């Protein structure tokens, strides 16, 4: 049996029951990393030694007949903007090269408590800014379904690692679609939890009012398990909700009959990829066969979401990234004479083009005389976008849309035009602005063999409902597992 | 939207970001384009719409301001580009 074909739920059960050793499971995944990584390059750091030590500790714990955690021996990949104590954390940026995390993120602490094993840190668009992982300062990650294509972004490494079975589970962060869009491109499940459900402590901040950590998995049951482990209140994050993950996952079990699904007309636009539209509509039809009621709805302010996002997110980023100043960690310009010069030279040399672009945009939007016209205005439009969702959720339980207007695109297809790249997140951004729950699950393949993602959006703390609908679809129309080494 | 070269230089200065002349030119063009695409927001009348300050509807969260020791401060200092004993070393600030 190929242990990398097991789901996280299966691995934890087998390790706890003694049918498989954690070391054996981790070795199988490390072997797969060795074979595939030269082509895919999902990882910034592979943690071979510490993963084997951690797996050994799980097996010893079992030998001592101690109770094992819910993720016993499950190999997990972490986006390289989430802190894992003692391990280099780079955000795929030159400015953080060499920085070793001094503490664990809350999600890491909770995963360790359940005996998970960290197999590596994954590549991302620098500071999570991008939609293709091409903005990594180190190297590009390839889509395991077609290595000429991008894996999506910004959590492209995490999505690719799970799709290629180099990890059973992975975590990423989603500020405007950075979990859902790469999940869609790589044919895996990606969940963006409700804002506040998962602690952001130990996540290197991009845009604090939008950032949310969430899991990548190959099944909805694995995504639910991952959320139940990492979710819940954390006093170290003041925006953390009091809701428990169990409350959010309520309704996970249940039938589809009577579930009201809304199709927002603004998400089915002329000119969108025909294969994507057909596949998403077919998935909705499948849910209809199971008894769901499908209705057309409208989210009238959708067309303002991208513009709103590209004011709010860069503004918050320009403030958050002020901490990278060459004084306490990472790169520092050695020749600079004054403190001012240290700041300017370090940041000029350490940040890549997209990060600089967004810092410039945000600094402008927040600067004296422009604040009301840009940031103030965008925060008001944001309210209108959130109200659209409130209205829609009076008529339906869940919204179904494409995750992205296209399947994975080829390397370089959008790098010269920042605006074209930004539009890749047109359907995922509104959910971050409103702070509600959303996810992507694979619903089909294009003729060329690239995955297509269906996005489900629900009200805040409706993760159980989303995963119930996704689970029913997964059962009715199983998505192919990527069996080839990679194409 | 008229963003000139000197505006780009001023923003870069505010952001403490050293830019090459090529970068100044690149960002001038791109910022104009990006900001133009956002002008669409002005079409919306938002005079009576409150800004979203928290999607959770939460207000301020308070706790006692009590210092707690960080277990191993050496782990933080170990990342310093320049240090002297238990201090981060910086260039002279006051002439």
List keywords for this structure.
heterodimer; A: 487 residues; alpha/beta; Amidase signature (AS) enzymes; 11-stranded mixed sheet; 16 helices; 11 strands; B: 95 residues; mainly alpha; Histone, subunit A; two-stranded antiparallel ribbon; 2 strands; flat
Structure characterization notes:
The complex is a heterodimer of chains A (487) and B (95). Chain A is an alpha/beta fold. Chain A has a domain at 3-254 and 438-476: Amidase signature (AS) domain (Amidase signature (AS) enzymes). Chain A is built from 16 helices and 11 strands. The radius of gyration of chain A is 21 Å and the shape is globular. A two-stranded antiparallel ribbon of chain B has the order 1-2. Chain B has 3 helices and 2 strands; from the N terminus they run αααββ. In chain B, a hairpin with a 2-residue loop joins strand 1 (83-84) and strand 2. The chains are: A alpha/beta (487), B mainly alpha (95). Chains A and B meet through helix 10, helix 11, helix 12 and helix 13 of A and helix 1 and helix 2 of B.
Q: How do the helices and strands line up, and which of them pair or pack?
A:
The complex is a heterodimer of chains A (487) and B (95).
Chain A: H1 8-17, H2 22-40, E1 43-46, H3 48-63, E2 75-79, H4 106-113, E3 117-122, H5 156-163, E4 169-173, H6 180-186, E5 189-192, E6 213-217, H7 220-230, H8 245-248, E7 260-264, H9 274-289, E8 293-297, H10 305-320, H11 339-350, H12 353-366, H13 372-395, E9 398-402, H14 418-422, H15 429-434, E10 437-445, E11 451-458, H16 463-476
Parallel strand pairs in A: 2-3, 2-4, 7-8, 7-9
Antiparallel strand pairs in A: 1-3, 4-6, 5-6, 5-10, 9-11, 10-11
Chain B: H1 5-14, H2 21-38, H3 73-77, E1 83-84, E2 87-88
Helix pairs in contact in B: 1-2
Supply the CATH architecture of the domain at 5-42 in chain B.
Orthogonal Bundle
Strand content of chain B: under 5%
Strand content of chain A: 5-15%
Order of neighbouring strands in the sheet with most strands of chain B: 1-2
Total count of helical runs of at least 4 residues of chain B = 3
- CATH second-level architecture of the domain at 3-254 and 438-476 in chain A: Alpha-Beta Complex
């Amino acid at each position: 049996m190929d242990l990398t074909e097991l789901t996280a739920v299966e691995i934890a059960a087998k390790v706890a029951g003694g049918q498989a050793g954690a070391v054996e499971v981790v070795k199988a995944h490390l072997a797969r990393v060795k074979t595939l990584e030269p082509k895919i390059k999902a990882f910034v750091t592979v943690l071979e030694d510490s993963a084997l030590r951690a797996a050994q500790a799980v097996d010893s714990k079992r030998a001592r007949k101690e109770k094992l955690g819910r993720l016993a021996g499950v190999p997990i990949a972490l986006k390289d903007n989430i802190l894992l104590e003692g391990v280099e954390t780079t955000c795929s940026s030159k400015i953080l090269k060499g920085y070793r995390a001094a503490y664990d993120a809350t999600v890491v602490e909770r995963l360790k408590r359940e005996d998970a094993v960290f197999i590596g840190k994954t590549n991302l668009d620098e500071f999570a800014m991008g939609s293709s992982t091409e903005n990594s300062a180190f190297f590009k990650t390839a889509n395991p379904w077609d290595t000429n294509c991008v894996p999506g972004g910004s959590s492209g490494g995490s999505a690719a690692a799970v799709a290629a079975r180099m990890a059973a589970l992975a975590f990423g962060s989603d500020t405007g679609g950075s979990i859902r869009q790469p999940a869609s491109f790589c044919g895996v499940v990606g969940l963006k939890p409700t804002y506040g459900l998962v602690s952001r402590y130990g996540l290197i901040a991009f845009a604090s009012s939008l950032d949310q950590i969430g899991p990548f998995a190959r099944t909805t049951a694995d995504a639910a398990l991952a959320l139940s482990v990492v979710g819940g209140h954390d006093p170290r994050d003041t925006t953390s909700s009091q809701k428990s993950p169990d409350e959010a996952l309520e309704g996970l079990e249940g039938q589809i009959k009577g579930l009201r699904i809304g199709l927002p007309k603004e998400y089915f636009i002329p000119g969108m990829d025909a294969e994507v539209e057909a596949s998403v509509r077919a998935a909705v039809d499948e849910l209809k066969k199971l008894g769901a009621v499908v209705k057309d709805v409208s989210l009238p302010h959708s067309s303002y979401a991208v513009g709103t996002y590209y004011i709010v997110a860069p503004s918050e980023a320009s403030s958050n990234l002020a901490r990278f100043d060459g004084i306490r960690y990472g790169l520092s310009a050695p020749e600079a004479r004054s403190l001012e010069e240290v700041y300017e030279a370090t940041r000029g040399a350490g940040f890549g083009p997209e990060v600089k672009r967004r810092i410039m945009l945000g600094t402008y939007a927040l600067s004296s005389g422009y604040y009301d016209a840009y940031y103030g205005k965008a925060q008001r439009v944001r309210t209108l976008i959130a109200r659209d969702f409130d209205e829609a959720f009076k008529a339906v339980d869940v919204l179904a849309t494409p995750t992205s207007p296209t399947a994975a695109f080829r390397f370089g297809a959008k790098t010269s035009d920042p605006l074209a790249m930004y539009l890749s997140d047109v359907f995922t951004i509104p959910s971050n602005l409103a702070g509600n729950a959303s996810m992507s699950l694979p619903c089909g393949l294009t003729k060329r063999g690239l995955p297509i993602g269906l996005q489900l959006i629900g009200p805040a703390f409706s993760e159980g409902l989303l995963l119930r609908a996704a689970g029913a679809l997964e059962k009715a129309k199983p998505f192919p597992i990527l069996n080839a080494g990679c194409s | 939207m008229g963003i000139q070269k000197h505006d780009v230089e001023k923003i870069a200065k505010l952001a403490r970001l050293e830019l090459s002349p090529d970068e100044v030119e690149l960002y001038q063009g791109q910022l104009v384009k990006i900001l133009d695409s956002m002008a669409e927001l002005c079409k919306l009348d938002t005079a009576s719409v409150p800004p979203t300050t928290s999607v959770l509807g939460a207000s301020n969260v308070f706790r006692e301001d009590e210092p707690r020791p960080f277990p191993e401060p050496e782990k933080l200092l170990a990342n310093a580009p320049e240090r002297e004993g238990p201090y981060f070393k910086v260039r002279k600030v006051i002439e």
